[in-house]
Hints:
This protein is an alpha+beta fold. It has 13 helices and eleven strands.
Amino acid sequence: xxxxxxxxxxxxxxxxxxxxxxxxxxxxxxxxxxxxxxxxxxxxxxxxxxxxxxxxxxxxxxxxxxxxxxxxxxxxxxxxxxxxxxxxxxxxxxxxxxxxxxxxxxxxxxxxxxxxxxxxxxxxxxxxxxxxxxxxxxxxxxxxxxxxxxxxxxxxxxxxxxxxxxxxxxxxxxxxxxxxxxxxxxxxxxxxxxxxxxxxxxxxxxxxxxxxxxxxxxxxxxxxxxxxxxxxxxxxxxxxxxxxxxxxxxxxxxxxxxxxxxxxxxxxxxxxxxxxxxxxxxxxxxxxxxxxxxxxxxxxxxxxxxxxxxxxxxxxxxxxxxxxxxxxxxxxxxxxxxxxxxxxxxxxxxxxxxxxxxxxxxxxxxxxxxxxxxxxxxxxxxxxxxxxxxxxxxxxxxxxxxxxxxxxxxxxxx
Length: 414
């Protein structure tokens, strides 16, 4: 079992999200705990009022709403009764056993899961501390519940499994706003909270991989002037398709204000990601054969780093962004230093090309010199052997003064 906890300042938004799923036939409210009426007698207004009355007891607490999802292995097929029992046990161990909460079973994913809606303001007006709730309470509770109910354990699964999010099928979702919202929402829920980005272009670098784009509009548009934000689906040619959806219409409310706060927090969080990318680049350029940006992209891909090249209409490279899937960080090349900007990387590639050319020329020059030396050596050898084997008279090499004088033979007559 995997438990995901999200906090919010809008209980209405959380309740709307789950109730809309019920209306679409994709979810069912299976339990209402600590409510004065039975589940069958509760409508949307009565469900909401119970939470709002508690929230009024402590107006100083801004994030007073909690939305929890309990996710189970695809092989598990739990009944409504068992899901409600698991939810009750979990909420008790979490410290929310006396709080009002609603349990919804969802049927719109490839694995069984349920959602729990509650708030953290108690009857006496005191709030339940949400700081590090996942580490302090949720993790121990999850492990105990897995043992109690014989569930498939989530321990170690994160290390073994890698998240894969397929691009949105634009042919299927371009018709009808509800389906578009569902498709975009599934991407946003993963990217917004898991990746570390510090600007809108960096966020879009990841979103675009899944055919989603966050757009502020032109500077003259009403959306831009009002600090609004639209989310669009992109076709295979990266062109917007279908009806844009306002950020405020999504449950997580990923507005520009929300993103600006994420930018600020993520700038500090992604320092490790920056170091990882920088080390990977240095290691890549230690290879003198790294002579093109395309070759660099292939090398980084082997280390789980995706490279995005930003080019002008003339095809000139003016920017480069790295998405490190290992650290889930989005890094602009220029933020790593001049040598890792688009211009710096192109310069490094050019330097490697020059180094290889010089090495090649030197190699050819050395080979030529060696060849000439070998030729002269062979010439000397050939002449020396010629000299040694030549049938020349020794007398030619003896000084005249050392030549022996011939004795005269006496004549016969004497």
